[in-house]
Amino acid sequence: MSRITLLSLFLLACQPAAFAAPSQASGEAPQPAPYLRPGAPTFDLTLVNFRAHYNQAFPSLPLEEYRAISVRDENLPLTRAATRINAAVYSSVVLEKGTGKIKSLQITYLPSEDGERGKGKRGARNGAETPDRQLAIRYMAALMQSFSPTLSPQQSLEKVAELLSRGRSQPYYSQQDGSLRYVVSDSGEKGITFAVEPIKLSLSEDAGS
């Protein structure tokens, strides 16, 4: 099975299940992921425009052309696509159907069964990161910085590290930062996804920002 196929299966398994806010009461059905809810916002940005801007700003961490991923429910008002960074690191995107505007941008780390997973266990015990996980974190930080350009590279790395720490072992962890939502979906040895999504601010929030 190809890694891009594995990624699509991972994303289909995680979304919207993992990328859904947990219900408040025990026994309730999981709530849909924020970008699936009626009226969910999009970035005023298409994937083509994002890639052009991103690759110019981060030439050492390029994103190649994205390929479409099948969506289980064809009635959903969105499409998905992904691109391979290396054998263990991928980027995926959720787009609004029709406009092609971005609803969610994601970096996923998928450790291989034989290599990275074993190294990851040893690295975790020794307090070290595997090279592929380090690369994934650099891409996560670059993704964050592309939407928060006032952050320095070091600040974005530190912020991503903090988010991953808070979201460790959680199927869904989110944190709001102004008009952005950062999401972590940590499936342990199976992989971890970091996402950046837009938030529709209320009038009071908008006035206070």
Give a structural overview.
With 209 residues, the protein is of the alpha+beta class. The chain has one domain (3-19, 32-208). 34% of the residues lie in helices and 22% in strands. The protein is built from six helices and seven strands, in the order ααββββαααβββα. It has a seven-stranded antiparallel beta sheet, sandwiched between helices. Strand 5 (173-177) and strand 6 (180-186) form a beta hairpin. Helix 4 (131-147) crosses helix 5. The longest helix is centred in the middle third of the chain and has 17 residues, at 131-147. It starts with a helix and ends with a helix.
Let me know the number of strands.
Answer: 7
The largest pleated sheet is described as: 7 strands, antiparallel
Compute the average pLDDT.
Answer: 82
Poorly predicted regions are: 12-19, 122-127
Helical region count?
A: 6
Strand order, sheet with most strands: 1-2-3-4-7-6-5
Which H/E pattern describes the elements? HHEEEEHHHEEEH
Terminal residue distance: 47 Å
Pfam families: DUF1454 (PF07305)
Protein name: DUF1454 domain-containing protein
Signal peptide: 1-20
Keywords: Signal
